[in-house]
């Protein structure tokens, strides 16, 4: 029997609690063997019975791991991924991979690799949508993602919405269309709400993100005459009420994280690289868009 991939988890906040721990429980090919958090008490509370450390470097020094999942503060992602590579350990870096594209570029080409945690690529519905895009070649795209940040309840508070939710939708726009971003145009931008357009080789993707509205996810593709050719919608009041009435089975977050972890585990052991695993280059492309949005003034197009 093949031994499971030994994984260390850095960051014991809400994402670990609601996502990664249930994801590991779903996996037979990976084993969570140690955790780290700057609050070691929180780490011990969340991961009973596992070795707990105060930092990624402490974990790497004292534990035998093959893969390090970095789900802590964004400004520590790149230094800790580089530290993992120095001792021969692969890493899976949660979004946002860093605060800027300049930081993420430091991960390009490192060995062992650092992959990025764009888990929505692993949703079956997103895979079906991508296949449909390839057949229909839409002319425009609309993407919306909103949550109540107070409901999620991040332990140290959420990032501003651009860094918190923006990476998901920018990566989806690129992933679904297979096109490269070249410029952006900003309609509005605050810490809690943002709306902007991305030019993807002539296809305009309109992005709307918010921390002030209830959970809603929507992707709509239209042809040149404005007709809907593909659509995915989740959330809204009815779906929220229905979700609360279901049993406490692992939710979509845990399931997609489990699929992503399994793909990373196969790659760690020398298997074929799953094309859904996001690379550091993918992260640079996403952060270049978000950097440009953050720096934009007025509503004119800004070249990346």
Description:
By secondary structure, the protein is an alpha/beta fold. It has 2 domains: about 5-120 and about 255-275, NAD(P)-binding Rossmann-like Domain (Rossmann fold); about 125-245 and about 285-304, Dihydrodipicolinate Reductase, domain 2. Helices cover about 40% and strands about 25% of the residues. It contains 12 helices and 13 strands. The chain has helices at about 15-25, 40-45, 55-60, 75-85, 100-105, 125-135, 150, 160-165, 165-175, 235-245, 250-270, 280-295, and strands spanning about 5-10, 30-35, 50-55, 65-70, 90-95, 115, 140-150, 180-190, 195-200, 205-210, 210-220, 230-235, 300-304. It has a 7-stranded mixed beta sheet with strand order 12-11-7-10-9-8-13. A 6-stranded parallel beta sheet has the order 3-2-1-4-5-6, sandwiched between helices. Strand 5, helix 5 (about 100-105) and strand 6 form a beta-alpha-beta unit. Helix 9 crosses helix 12. Mean pLDDT is about 90; it is low at about 240-250.
């Amino acid at each position: 029997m093949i031994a499971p991939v030994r994984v260390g988890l850095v960051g014991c906040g809400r994402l670990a609690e609601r996502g990664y721990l249930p994801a590991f429980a779903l996996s037979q090919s990976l084993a969570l063997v140690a955790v780290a958090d700057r609050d070691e008490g929180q780490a011990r509370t969340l991961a009973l019975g596992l070795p707990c450390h105060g930092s990624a470097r402490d974990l790497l020094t004292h534990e035998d791991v093959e893969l390090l999942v970095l789900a802590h503060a964004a400004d520590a992602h790149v230094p800790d991924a580089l530290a993992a590579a120095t001792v021969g350990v692969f890493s899976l870096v949660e979004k946002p991979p860093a605060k800027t594209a300049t930081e993420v570029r430091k991960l390009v080409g490192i060995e062992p690799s650092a992959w990025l945690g764009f888990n929505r690529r692993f949703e079956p519905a997103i895979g079906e949508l991508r296949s449909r895009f390839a057949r229909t070649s839409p002319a425009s795209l609309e993407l919306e993602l909103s949550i109540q940040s107070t409901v999620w309840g991040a332990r140290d508070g959420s990032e501003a919405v651009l860094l918190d939710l923006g990476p998901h939708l920018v990566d989806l726009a690129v992933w679904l269309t297979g096109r490269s971003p070249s410029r952006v145009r900003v309609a509005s931008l605050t810490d809690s709400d943002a709306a902007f357009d991305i030019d993807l080789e002539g296809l305009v993707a309109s992005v709307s993100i918010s921390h002030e509205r209830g959970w809603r996810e929507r992707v709509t593709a239209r042809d040149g005459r404005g007709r809907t050719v593909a659509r995915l919608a989740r959330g809204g009041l009815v779906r929220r009420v229905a979700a609360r009435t279901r049993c406490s089975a692992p939710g979509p977050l845990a399931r997609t994280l489990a699929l992503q972890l399994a793909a990373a585990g196969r790659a760690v052991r020398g298997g074929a690289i799953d094309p859904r695993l996001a690379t550091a280059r993918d992260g640079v492309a996403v952060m270049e868009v978000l950097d440009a949005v953050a720096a934009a003034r007025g509503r004119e197009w800004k070249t990346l």
